[in-house]
Amino acid sequence: MLQIIFIVFAAVATLFFVLLMFSLLGKPPGEEVRARMEQYLVETEMAASEYNDPDDEAGSRRDDADMNDDDWIKENRGAGQGGLKKVLANVGTIITPRGMAMRIAADLAKADVPLKANEFVAIQFLAVTIALSFGMLIFKSVAIGSTLAAVGYFTPSIWVKIMKAKRVSAFNDQIQDCLIMLANGLKAGYSFLQAMEMVSRETPAPMGKELRRVLKENSLGVNLEEALTALNGRVESEDWDLVTTVVLIQRQVGGNLAEILDKIGFIIRQRMRIKGDIQTKTAQAKVSGLMVGALPIALGFVIYLINPAFMMKLFTFKSGWFKGWYIVVLGVFWEIVGMYIIMQIVDIEV
């Protein structure tokens, strides 16, 4: 059994070494296309500079500065790759299917993580390989190596989900101020796009960055309705979904948008107040669920300190096909199921 595992591990290590040499000696993905695009942009800029009006130089410099601020439109994640970026890019491109790459790229964009899909998959591959190697070489155990490999595989995905949740939370916290500024701008005589441009300048990320992206997409020919819908898909915020729906309806049927935004802001404030009350009243149930879930683990640890031989029978007992650690695995599984059910019960949607 160990010989087979060693052969599989050697094959994986050999594959990784070949991919590593390929990434170091070969060109990064898309380098030729990127070089042609850079040459085209340079030639276009040189040709346009011959026709620039001297009076417009200040405006051109200002536009260039604005473009530099909009880092979303630049492919700076792939440009200027170092050795590590080249390795991740080439390895990830080879082992990443196209459909999987599109899904991962969407998740990375929602979390605002500056990585490409192939780079993220390469990081997962490295995490699994290193964890499996550590478990097999240090602990000399297939179970520990497989467990560490599973942890290495899921850890980057969990990190992306956490970053996505933090970004959505930060975006939701800025919706109130954004609606107030939009309504005040409309009352002052601005158009909706002008008010949005003003808010994008005054609001920090992620709200300001997303609004600048909407304005840039609109300036490039995308309908405002489509740009707002795309924004709603990126942030996945229920409150902003309400704002987007109201704006789209107003653009179809008309009405006082400033008054509508004020009312939407009031509704969102009421939802936040009710949500806070519910979280306060369900806090005791959540803590109780966590305590019930942690009680068997704490009790088992105390019994182990008092009588280790008695507790170790759970891991050493064997009778035919049945082994004692089956009970531990089954108990942990039902602990997780029970805690999940409790959290679903106390999680009341508003």
What does it look like?
The protein is mainly alpha-helical. Helices cover 81% and strands 1% of the residues. It has helices at residues 2-25, 31-49, 57-69, 83-95, 98-111, 117-139, 142-187, 192-202, 207-219, 224-235, 238-253, 257-306, 308-316, 325-346; strands at residues 318-319, 322-323. Strands 1-2 form a two-stranded antiparallel ribbon. β1 (318-319) and β2 (322-323) form a beta hairpin. α7 (142-187) crosses α8 (192-202) and α8 (192-202) packs across α9 (207-219). The longest helix is centred in the C-terminal third of the chain and has 50 residues, at 257-306. The two termini are 55 Å apart. The model is unreliable at 22-31 and 51-81 (pLDDT under 50).
Write a brief structural summary:
This protein is mostly helical. It is built from 14 helices and two strands; from the N terminus they run H-H-H-H-H-H-H-H-H-H-H-H-H-E-E-H. The chain has a two-stranded antiparallel ribbon.
From the structure above, extract its key features.
single chain, 81% helix, 14 helices, two-stranded antiparallel ribbon, 1% strand
